[in-house]
Amino acid sequence: MNFAKQFVFFLSVLGAFNGLILTFYFAFIARKKHFSNYFLALLLLTLSIRITKFVVLYYIPKLSGVFIQIGYSASILIGPFLYLYFRCILSDNIKKWSAHILPFLAVIVVVGIAYPYIEHRTEWNHYIIKSIYIQWFIYLIISFKFVKPILRKLFKKNQKLSRKDLWLLSIYSSVSLIWFAYNISHYYSNFLVGLSFSFALYVVILFFAIRNKKNTSFFEDPEKYKNKKLDHAVVRQIKNKISNVKDNELYLNSNISLPFIAKELHVSNHIFSQFLNDNLNKSFSLFINELRIEKAKELITSPNPYTIEIIGYECGFNSKSSFFSTFKKLTGQTPSNYQKTNKKEV
Fold first, then answer.
1. d(CA 324, CA 334)
2. Is the distance from CB of 228 to CB of 274 less than 8 angstroms?
3. Residues 213 and 163 sit within 8 Å (Cβ to Cβ)
4. Residue 199 · residue 19 · CB < 8 Å
5. What is the torsion angle, in degrees rounded to the nearest 10, for the CA atoms of residue 82, residue 84, residue 86 and residue 90?
6. 345 vs 330: CA distance, rounded Å
7. Is the pTM of this model over 0.85?
8. Which CATH architecture has domain 222-342?
9. CATH, domain 3-211, list 2.130.10.10, 2.30.30.240, 1.20.1070.10, 1.10.1240.10
10. pLDDT tens digits, residue range 86-116?
11. Cα(114)–Cα(239) distance, rounded to whole angstroms?
């Protein structure tokens, strides 16, 4: 095996291994024990088994027929677990989940016993494997209804994807690409190997990137509050005091945090976060950044000795890049263009 193949083999095995790590994480370690975690864990497990089978078979052609059969058999559950994960996480519906698993599991076990791969390679290659891929594709089509609203957001100017949207879109796209790759594997084997390891590796990177974002948690979403409305008295109390954040210019503090503001308002972090989601439809970071940009717009259009960069720092931003990107995101213009079109006369 030359160096290039050794390198791709290493990355492929690493990707499959990362998938197994995530399987363990979602099944046993994730802090919020939501039922959807188990479907995601099983989806990653079946994908990891399928990816491992292809990777090892590609580089070790004399692989045991039993292992090959297990790899192919795992594919029959990828589509159902994808569908169940989306249905559970988006609608919290776990009714009749076994109807999507047990029949297929029973069929593949019976077929595997009656027609073991090692003795019936022709039947597997011409009929069984093709049937599995067709079933997988059908579940991709069924699951698309969950992704469709996310894609609509993607093409609307005034709507942005939440971290949850990004996560779900990545999961669906990755599973779809892997299905596509396996169906052209006879023509583009190297491409398939690279795609196979990249799925699990990409999910790992995306997961930890989202998880480490300040003031956010991947497993938390505004939807979590839908059945837990705040008491009217609490809402009124926060509304009466939240103006202090703007009046006292607390947002100019570059180290401001949700706990700090919650303490100023004499409420818990959880209640203040829920208030922002329920009543303002904003995250904490968006709430603060909107105040900062309003202040920046005021300074930019007023006669003063400050450069645009200094104005960004004065308004609480930690860097020029974060100020410029946030300003353009919220106003649709760069600070310089906004200044040119709105400059007040001296």
1. 6
2. yes
3. yes
4. yes
5. -170
6. 25
7. no
8. Orthogonal Bundle (1.10)
9. 1.20.1070.10
10. 998 887 677 889 999 999 999 999 999 999 9
11. 69
Q: What is the pLDDT of residues 132-163, one digit of tens each?
A: 999 999 999 999 999 998 898 888 776 778 77
Both tokens of 192, joined, read 């398939």
Provide the pLDDT confidence category of residue 186 given band limits of 50, 70 and 90. Answer: low
Residue of 231, 232, 264 whose CA lies nearest to 246: 264
The distance from CA 250 to its chain's CA centroid, rounded to whole angstroms, is 32
- Residue 332 gets the label, from left (phi > 0), alpha (psi -120 to 50) or beta, of left
CA atoms within 13 A on the CB side of 217: 11
**What tokens does 83 get?**
């569908």
Q: Where in the chain are the domains?
A: 3-211, 222-342
The C-alpha angle with vertex 90 and arms to 89 and 94, in degrees rounded to 5, equals 60
CA distance 274 to 245: 17
Contact 187, 175 (CB under 8 A): no
Residue 43, CB half-sphere, CA atoms under 13 Å: how many?
A: 25
H runs (alpha helix) in the chain: 3-24, 35-59, 65-74, 78-91, 102-114, 121-123, 129-154, 163-183, 189-211, 232-241, 243-247, 258-264, 269-275, 284-300, 308-314, 320-331, 335-342
Secondary structure of 11-64 in HEC code, one letter for each residue? HHHHHHHHHHHHHHHHHHHCCCCCHHHHHHHHHHHHHHHHHHHHHHHHHCCCCC
Read off the tokens for 330: 């919220």
Asked if residue 298 lies in contact with residue 331, where contact means CB atoms within 8 angstroms, the answer is: no
Pairwise CA distance, residues 126 & 141, whole Å = 23
51 token code pair? 């990816």
- 8 Å CB contact between 312 and 324: yes
Provide the token pair at 18: 């990362």
CA 86 – CA 153 distance, rounded (Å): 17
